[in-house]
Amino acid sequence: MMTMSRPRRVPNPDSSPSPLRKVVVGIADMKVSNDPHEYLVTFALGSCLGITLYDYQEQVGGMVHIPLPDSSIAKGEPDFNPLKFVDTAVPLLFKECYRFGATKRDIKVKVAGCSQISDAESFFNIGRRNYAALRRILWRNGVFITSEDCGNSLSRTMTLSIATGETLLKVNGREYPL
Known about the structure:
single chain; alpha+beta; five-stranded mixed beta sheet; 2 helices; 10 strands; globular
């Protein structure tokens, strides 16, 4: 049986400051880091759900970009990707942050997206369903959202600084903290 050790932060041997590295989180993708020289970014959060987790004690942060609420429509498929669905991606994000040393007690949860995009009659309600699925999972686990910017018909870009834990949103050219 293979055991996974906790990832360690490797000090930079160079005394000069390292430039920040952008780590892009794609659709149905997740990244977790404890490298203060990285920032995570995801683009085009429309009806998709963007979540950041950050532990200020351990300086561990993670981000996921989730397009759909419920994995039951795809389980058993040969190309099943658990990061496509709120009910499977959210637990994976928490587990990976814990693996990096984060604790449930110290994690801050920030959420963006869940817009009503390209569905004028509200037939599919993907954004609303994504948000409801997230709230159910967090509620069942006793976790609360620290900050959110959800709904409307906006597309958002979400950024997480691993050094500071600051989550920024960019909407229509305007950037602000979440």
